[in-house]
Amino acid sequence: MPINVLRIAYCQCTDNHIKEFECNWTPEELLAAQEVSVKLQRIGYMALHNLISRNHFMNIWGPMYLSTWYSLEPWVKHKRLEMDEPLTIEEGAYSRMYLEQFAQYCEVNIPDVLVNNERRRFNLPEIIIKKPLISKHIKKNFRRSTEKLDI
């Protein structure tokens, strides 16, 4: 029997985060968000700079990493607002940059079904990422050879 966990969003902002908002998290949850985000920021940095194997980490912890990012993303956006930073990395945001970048890496490299399972848990729309089909690429570039090896 599945366990339903009540998830309380950090804020009620939709896509447009504003400075004046109502925080739905307790002081204990805010402290936990700080601690977890710092640790995942470090992991994201190490993975993106090949100090740890990003593929090994992603294969084991990728869905959990995404789940944590989806939970913390509104908190991160408000933290950026408080520090007068842009909201997105593309616009120059710096706070928790590696946390977000590794989450984006995971979204692209984890199978779509796993990514969308995590997104559904947070009532986020499913994403469709066009991933290259390796088998078609291989077939196109490597034709079957009739050459026989004499070993």
Give structural attributes.
single chain, 151 residues, mainly alpha, 5 helices
Secondary structure layout:
Blueprint: H1 27-48, H2 54-82, H3 97-109, H4 112-121, H5 134-141
Helix pairs in contact: 1-2, 1-3, 2-3, 2-4
Strand content: under 5%
Rg, alpha carbons: 20 Å
Pick out the low-confidence regions. none
Total strands:
0
- Category by helix and strand content: mainly alpha
Shape: globular
> What percent of residues adopt helix (DSSP H or I)?
40-55%
- Largest beta-sheet characterization: none
Element order: H for helix, E for strand = HHHHH
Overall mean pLDDT score?
A: 82
Distance N terminus to C terminus? 58 Å
- Count of runs of 4 or more consecutive helical residues: 5
In short:
This protein is mainly alpha-helical and 151 residues long. The chain has helices spanning 27-48, 54-82, 97-109, 112-121, 134-141.
Q: What do these coordinates show?
A:
With 151 residues, the chain is an all-alpha fold. Helices cover 54% and strands 0% of the residues. It has five helices and no strands. Helix 2 crosses helix 3 (97-109) and helix 2 runs parallel beside helix 4 (112-121). The chain is globular, with a radius of gyration of 20 Å. The termini are far apart. The model has no long low-confidence stretch (mean pLDDT 82).
